[in-house]
UniProtKB/TrEMBL annotation:
Source species of the chain: Micromonospora acroterricola
InterPro entries named in the record: AraC_XylS_family_regulators (IPR050204), DUF6597 (IPR046532), Homeodomain-like_sf (IPR009057), HTH_AraC (IPR018060)
Keyword flag Transcription regulation: yes
Keywords, ordered alphabetically: DNA-binding, Transcription, Transcription regulation
Domain of life: Bacteria
Protein name (Swiss-Prot/TrEMBL): AraC family transcriptional regulator
MF (Gene Ontology): DNA-binding transcription factor activity; sequence-specific DNA binding
A UniProt-annotated Pfam family: HTH_18
Domain HTH araC/xylS-type: 163-263
Amino acid sequence: MRQRPRGDSRGILDPERLLREVRFRRHLPAESLRPWIEHYWLIDWALSAPFEQRIVPHPAVNVVFQRDGDGPETGEVAGVGRDLFRITLAGTGRVCGVQFRPGGFHPFWRRPVAELTGRRLPLPSGRLTLPGAPVCAGTDDDRRSALDALLTAWAPTPDPATAEAVRLAEAIRTDRTVLRVDDLAARHDLPVRRLQRLFTEYVGVGPKWVIRRYRLQEAVEQAAGGPLNWAGLAADLGYSDQAHLVRDFTAVTGVSPAAYARSVH
């Protein structure tokens, strides 16, 4: 089990600018929640001018609480986003987010997670209700404790299929040699059809989409790091040619790889 939150910037476009504009940090949840939750992510801001952040979404559900200025705190469930996510922050505010592990939201939702894909639903939503007190208040420890208490109260129910879906999605994320669904199925001795049903039910998108999204996030992260051999990277990430990677990159981020690399440097 992970002992510290991830330190990468995958999915965040121009991460250095994000860190200049806002206070962004991650914390692990209580140990009992870690089989299902990747991390908590907290953002505070006090901006003199509006700031837009763009995110290439992970194949994961998020629960997000936000308070702008002196306004009321709101909460929502955000399903897996297929498209580029944009948000504009202004003035002052706070966000407390929960990023579930791919497949890890099912024990809380208890219905096919594909119902949420591409959608953002306000809380309360069925069993998932707003907490009685604000989550985005106090210190980081206060906010983390409030999220622990809320998620524990939602009473997630462990089940073997959830554990399998989480394990398979993690294998895709961490092993860049996983490039095809049939290869993933063979490695784990699973029929392709069962693998596809499992991901649709528990992750919210199919395994092919998850493979492609993780490989594309890797391309975005590497583009921010310096000059690249794009043809070589395309081959490493399982694309048929450089043009295919460029098309996918541009479709998801809204800019070409070369334009993105120039913008962050």
